[in-house]
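Project standup — Tuesday

K.O.: blocked on the structure for the chain from last sprint. Re-posting the sequence here as requested.
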Amino acid sequence: MATMLLNPIAFQLGPISVHWYGIILGTAALVGLLLAIREGKRFGISPDFFMDILLIGLPSALIGARAYYVIFQWDQYKGDLLKIFAIWEGGIAIYGALIGAFIGAGIYLRKKGYSFIRIADICAPGLLIGQAIGRWGNFINQEAYGGPVEESFLRNTLHLPDFIVNQMNVQGVFHHPTFLYESIWNIVGVLLLFGIRRLKNVRQGEVLLSYLIWYSIGRFFIEGLRTDSLAYKGSAWAQSLVDALWSPMTIVFEPGYLDPAYGNVRISQLLALFIVIVGIILIVFRRLKGKQHVVRYSDPIVSSKAPQAASSQDKQDATQESTKGPASIQASEEKQEHVAGDPIKDEHNGKDEETSSEKSPAHEAEDTDPRGTK
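H.V.: unblocked you, prediction finished:
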């Protein structure tokens, strides 16, 4: 059993144990949400909209991440199915999380009439910073580490602080802090995405594709250092291709051990390679396709259902106007006539009638003279 130098339990609430792993994942989600909200304000999108996406996307991501991991580690869980739900013990896969989040958010965005690609462009930096923070959960659990290294490599070459070096001592053997490598890689990627999305001619989808390409490049090389990779028994050509592409890393690092009985091809490396190739092809193809009907990242984002809602309101107003009958028109005219009347004359009308009998003939003649005014 690994020597745990940091307690994975942050604190107790009665019988409930609150794990650092959950706190870190929650923090990752919150920071990613704040980045999306801030960028969404440039497009006039309400923060509540991104809150709704998080409330749907986060559970979908957790389900996808856990399902992805369990599928490739079924032998570990088939004897105790309840362990499938013990995510605080670790065992989630980032690519599974992305698949789950994209499915959940895609369904919600389709219902709201928004383009998935446009919103995903906004959320891409938030996703990447979330992954950077989330990797520290692996650090707490002493998982997702790399192959063995000398303590001097961690202290003198990488100049890591004691709390990281000590935590990388697993059962008396020091290991590569691959969680740290990936976390730093992702932070650099966030800064890169910040710059890309401010370029004038960036098109829709290119921030999302840049995020996927950047993360996958880093994941391909860092995954080769790990000793707990999900793997399968693939063909010889697939193994040769992955090994050849990773070979420049051997100048400095030794590859992490992979049990041949378990598999010879790391799934994350193969998937990362596929994403990089497809992402580059999509960007180049869309650029060569032409400049007609190009939607840029900076263009306004409008729900396809918003015009329909406005049209429905206009129709409703028109219907209300057309249903006004003669009675309504007559009442309106009488109201206007009453407002236009002489209130002083109305007030003294009775008084004038009472005193008319006392008026002199001269006054009567004056009253009947059409040239007279009062």
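K.O.: great, moving the ticket to review. The chain has a mean pLDDT of 84. The beta strands are 9-13, 16-19, 169-170, 173-174, 231-232, 265-266.
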